[in-house]
Design goal:
With 200 residues, the protein is of the alpha+beta class. It folds into 2 domains: 18-84, Winged helix-like DNA-binding domain superfamily/Winged helix DNA-binding domain (Arc Repressor Mutant, subunit A), CATH 1.10.10; 102-175, Winged helix-like DNA-binding domain superfamily/Winged helix DNA-binding domain (Arc Repressor Mutant, subunit A, Orthogonal Bundle), CATH 1.10.10. The protein is 40% helix and 16% strand. The chain contains 8 helices and 8 strands. The chain has helices at residues 20-30, 37-44, 48-62, 85-92, 102-114, 119-126, 131-140, 162-167; strands at residues 2-3, 8-9, 35-36, 67-72, 75-80, 117-118, 143-148, 156-160. The strands form 3 sheets. It has a 3-stranded antiparallel β-sheet. Strands 6-8-7 form a 3-stranded antiparallel β-sheet. Strands 1-2 form a two-stranded antiparallel sheet. Strand 7 (143-148) and strand 8 form a beta hairpin. Helix 1 crosses helix 3 (48-62), helix 2 crosses helix 3 and helix 5 (102-114) packs across helix 7. The model is unreliable at 189-196 (pLDDT under 50).
Length: 200
C-alpha cells in the first residue's frame, strides 16, 4: 500500500522494526491492569530475561517523561508521573480527593510496612478497633484483601494496592522511606537491665 500524497509506503511489514523496549511500552500502554513478566514475554515472543532488561531500560527512559513504570507485586503498568497529577485532574475535571482521617492514615501506614497484615494485628498496634477506617481504605482502593492467615480463626490478610503506589507517587514499595528506629526512653528500661559487654 502506498500513500499517494507522499509516495511513502504504508505497509507495516516494510517499516523499520520496533525495539523490544518500544514493543513492551505498547503492551503496557494498552494493558487494562498490571501485567507480569511471564505474560509480557509470551506476548512478545521473548525470554523473561530479555523482558526484565527491557523493563529496566524503559523505566530509566521514562524518568524524563510524563509517565512512570510502576511495579506492584509481580505486575508492571504505566502510570502518570506524580508531577503531572494536577494537570491530569484539570483535564479530566476530577474532584479533589477526599482527605483521609488520622485513623485511616495510621492503618494505611501499618498495612504498607507490615503487609500482608490482619485486622487483629492492626488493632493490637493501635489499641483500638480499626474496622471502620479499614473499610474506608478498602472503598478508596488503597488496600485490598489478599488471602487469609493460617492463625486461629484464619483472619483476612490486607495489603496495599497499585492505586496506593499511584496515589503516593511511588513506582514500587521499595521506594517507601525507611521507618525511623524506635527510641526507648531511659526511664522505660528495667532498673536491673545490664547491656551485654562487647567481646574483647
Amino acid at each position: 500500500m502506498e500513500d499517494y500524497s507522499t509516495g511513502a509506503s504504508l505497509d507495516p511489514a516494510r517499516e523499520p522494526g520496533l525495539t523490544l523496549r518500544s514493543r513492551l511500552e505498547a503492551l503496557l500502554f494498552v494493558s487494562a491492569g498490571p501485567a507480569d513478566v511471564a505474560r509480557l514475554a509470551s506476548a512478545l515472543g521473548a525470554s523473561s530475561k530479555d523482558v526484565d532488561r527491557a523493563l529496566e531500560e524503559l523505566k530509566q527512559d521514562l524518568e524524563a517523561r510524563g509517565l512512570r513504570l510502576q511495579h506492584h507485586r509481580a505486575g508492571y503498568q504505566l502510570t502518570c508521573a506524580p508531577q503531572a497529577a494536577e494537570d491530569v485532574e484539570r483535564l479530566l475535571n476530577l474532584e479533589t480527593t477526599a482527605r483521609l482521617t488520622r485513623a485511616a492514615l495510621e492503618i494505611l501506614a501499618i498495612v504498607a510496612y507490615e503487609q500482608p497484615v490482619t485486622r487483629p494485628h492492626i488493632d493490637s498496634i493501635r489499641g483500638v478497633n480499626s474496622e471502620s477506617a479499614l473499610q474506608t481504605l478498602l472503598r478508596y482502593g488503597l488496600v485490598e484483601e489478599t488471602g487469609r492467615s493460617e492463625g486461629p480463626g484464619r483472619p483476612i490478610l490486607y495489603a496495599t494496592t497499585a492505586e496506593f503506589l499511584q496515589h503516593f507517587g511511588l513506582s514500587s514499595l521499595e521506594q517507601m522511606p525507611p521507618l525511623a528506629p524506635v527510641q526507648v526512653p531511659a526511664e522505660a528500661a528495667p532498673a536491673d537491665f545490664n547491656p551485654p559487654s562487647e567481646a574483647a
